[in-house]
Each structure stands twice: as C-alpha cells, then as structure tokens.
C-alpha cells in the first residue's frame, strides 16, 4: 500500500525512480523494493526522506492526511477536487493548500460539509485535520481550533442555514452578510440575551413620566465649548432650580 502510494505520487510529480532516490538520498534498489512491495514496512526515517523529497507530508504518503482521505474517496466516486469544489462551494485553493494549513474553526466546518457531500465516515476528516494543529501547551487559556469548533453548537436548522449559505457564490454571500447587518441593527430580530439595550426598572422609569413630575427627569449638563456668558447662564439656571427645590 505504501509502496503504491509512493509510486503514484512519484509519477504525478514526473520523477523517475532514480530521480526520487537521489533526492531522498537513498539507494535506487531500496526505493524499488518499497514500491514493488518487497519491503512491506520500511522504517520511518526512510519514509520521511521520501516524503521530503516528494515535498508532501508523511501523513499524506501514509494516506492519513485529510487531503489524502478526500482524494481516495473522490477516486472511488470518479470525481476530482474541481468537482468537489463545485458541489461544496469551497474554493479550489483550499484543497490545493490543505496539506499545508494550520487549521482554524472554519476549516473544520469545511470538513463537516465535505464529509456530508461525499459520504466519508463521521469525523474521519476532522480527526485527520487535527494532526495538523499546532501544539497546545499546558495553559488554562490555550485551546485548539478544534476545541473552538466544538464549542459552537448547531441545531438542525442552523446546519440547514449554513449549508444553504455555502451553496451561494461570493456575490450571494455578500448579499446575505449585507442583509444580516441590517437585521442585527434591529433589536426586533435579535435574541433576548444579545440585546444591548438596558431596560430601567418599571417604577424608576415611571417617576418622571407622571404628570407634574417632569422636573424629575435626569438631565446631563455639559459645559463643552460654551462661552463664559453661556456657562454663567447655565450655572444660574442650576442654582435657581436648587433654591426652588428647597
């Protein structure tokens, strides 16, 4: 299996057996034995040299990377990455660079969409993508991108909305974002816990609304940019009010 993967990748990169052996700094006979299956379990050091020479991650060579898993499933379905890009509305550039990314939560969401579209077993791609995460050190505030992805809970309706959004082209997505901004500006369409308006207690709110108690309405006084004459006038009004109150 490993030998076949090496041979296929070598041929895709238009390298001869000798050419790859020289780049990997291993003997031609060793490489030939691996490709033909005479050596079933080559040591990890040799495999790392071959992977480096082919300019691919070792996990891709071992068919454990997210991209290699997708590729295997596409071959079974007689599909290309271009086909997958069209049905998922995920950029082809994402697939081209998939082996080199350090994943963020949006990459895991893409994996979930891909799994659904081509029928890969649940979480297989997500687990493979986790292998590309940067190390998370022992810190109470350190979290992986996958942890952030898991923290976002979606119900079936949310998933339906997301999938519908992903079928749009860039122009359509921009329209959705533009319309969503208008909705967010209107408290009528926001969840109660997300509303930023602070409601005053009912009794306190009614004090200055009662007839004859309008003078209790709180007033903020500022002397910004006032002339001396205007400032003196404002002080007189406040002083007169305080005298009358007594």
Automatic annotation (TrEMBL):
UniProt key word Ribosomal protein: no
InterPro entries: Cro/C1-type_HTH, Lambda_DNA-bd_dom_sf, TransReg_Diox_bact_type
UniProt xrefs under Gene3D superfamilies: lambda repressor-like DNA-binding domains
Superkingdom, taxonomy of origin: Bacteria
GO cellular component terms given for this protein: cytosol
Entry keyword DNA-binding: yes
Residue ranges occupied by any HTH cro/C1-type domain in the UniProt entry: 6-61
Signal sequence, renumbered to the chain: none
Keywords from the UniProt entry: DNA-binding
Cross-referenced Pfam families: HTH_3 (PF01381)
GO molecular function: DNA binding; DNA-binding transcription factor activity
Alphabetical list of SMART domains matching this protein: HTH_XRE
Protein name: Helix-turn-helix domain-containing protein
Organism, as annotated: Clostridium tertium
């Amino acid at each position: 299996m490993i030998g076949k993967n090496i041979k296929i990748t070598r041929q895709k990169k238009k390298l001869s057996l000798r050419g790859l052996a020289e780049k990997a700094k291993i003997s031609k006979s060793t490489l030939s034995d691996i490709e033909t299956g005479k050596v079933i379990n080559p040591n990890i050091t040799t495999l790392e040299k071959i992977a480096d020479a082919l300019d691919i991650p070792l996990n891709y060579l071992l068919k454990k990377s997210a991209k290699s898993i997708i590729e295997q499933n596409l071959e079974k379905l007689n599909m290309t990455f271009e086909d997958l890009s069209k049905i998922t509305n995920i950029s082809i550039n994402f697939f081209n660079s998939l082996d080199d990314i350090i994943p963020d939560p949006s990459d895991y969401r893409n994996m979930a969409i891909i799994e659904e579209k081509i029928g890969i077993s649940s979480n297989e791609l997500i687990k493979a993508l986790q292998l590309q995460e940067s190390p998370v050190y022992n810190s109470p505030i350190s979290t992986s991108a996958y942890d952030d992805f898991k923290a976002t809970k979606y119900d079936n309706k949310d998933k339906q909305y997301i999938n519908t959004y992903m079928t749009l082209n860039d122009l359509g997505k921009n329209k959705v974002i533009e319309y969503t901004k208008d909705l967010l500006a209107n408290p009528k369409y926001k969840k109660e816990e997300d509303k930023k308006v602070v409601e005053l207690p009912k009794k306190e709110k009614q004090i200055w609304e009662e007839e004859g108690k309008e003078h209790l309405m709180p007033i903020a006084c500022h002397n910004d940019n006032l002339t001396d004459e205007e400032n003196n006038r404002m002080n007189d009004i406040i002083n007169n009010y305080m005298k009358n109150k007594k």
